[in-house]
Amino acid sequence: MEKNVVLIALFAALIAVLGMIPKIDLISGVPITAQSLGVMLCGTVLGARRGALAVLLFLLLVALGLPLLAGGRGGLGLFVSPSAGFLIGFPLAAFVTGLVVEKAVGLPLAAAAFLGAVLGGIVALYIPGIIGMAITLDKSLPEAAMLALPFLPGDLIKAGIAGVLTSALAKARPEALLSRAAH
């Protein structure tokens, strides 16, 4: 239990630290940041439940006003901005990513983590993200989806990084990989 709490807090902090990497602002008003890599790693390393809890802790701190998002942003207003759908999708993304890694035990870990990061950290994340952009920017879903396309190459790279880092962590510290601990 204590180890879980520490790791959940540690991974919430990891997402915050990845926000220190300068953001790239897009025309949609949703920035490209490294924080989605942190969300992916929450799932690949901690698993579905703990990964989602780490992201929820991070979002609680953001909602309370801590400037933890890329560019030093924080506060409730972000949850009605063009980024809102992506923020709301962060816990879902970590959960789906972790669930895939937990269930895909027949795949090598790097491949399972990459697949999980793509299905969770891209597919599951983009669904609420695109819906949020459509609502806040008064766009159709296809128009909002087109605004999300610039994120795809970077997110695929982040999914690859998540796969490599997760596999490396498992080799260096197998006990730290909770997403496969039950197996």
UniProtKB/TrEMBL annotation:
Any Pfam family? BioY
Keywords from the named record:
Cell membrane, Membrane, Transmembrane, Transmembrane helix, Transport
Membrane spanning stretches: 29-46, 53-70, 76-101, 113-135, 147-170
Where does the record say this protein resides? Cell membrane
Membrane topology recorded in Swiss-Prot or TrEMBL: Multi-pass membrane protein
InterPro entries the record matches: BioY (IPR003784)
Q: Which Gene3D superfamilies match?
A: 1.10.1760.20
Q: Source organism's superkingdom?
A: Bacteria
| Gene Ontology CC terms, in alphabetical order | plasma membrane
From the UniProt record, which GO molecular function terms apply? Answer: biotin transmembrane transporter activity
> Which family does this protein fall into?
Belongs to the BioY family.
Q: Which PANTHER family match?
A: BIOTIN TRANSPORTER BIOY, BIOTIN TRANSPORTER BIOY-RELATED
Q: What is this protein called?
A: Biotin transporter
The organism encoding this protein is Ruegeria marisrubri
